[in-house]
Amino acid sequence: MKILVTGANGQLGNEIRLKARRSSNTFFFTDLVEQDGVETIKLDITDVDAVTKMVKDNGIDVIVNCAAYTNVDKAESDEELCHKLNAEAPKLLAQVMKKAKGMLLHISTDYVFGGEANNLPCTEDMKGKPTGVYGKTKLDGEKNIIATGVNYVIIRTAWLYSEYGKNFVKTMMNLTATRPSLNVVFDQVGTPTYAGDLAEAIMRILFDYKIETAEEGASTGARKYSKNGIYNYTNEGVCSWFDFAMKIADIAGNKDCDIQPCHSDEFPSPVKRPPYSVLDKTKVKQSFDVKVPYWTHSLRKCMKHLMKK
Question: Which of 69, 134, 161, 164 is catalytic?
Answer without folding.
Answer: 134
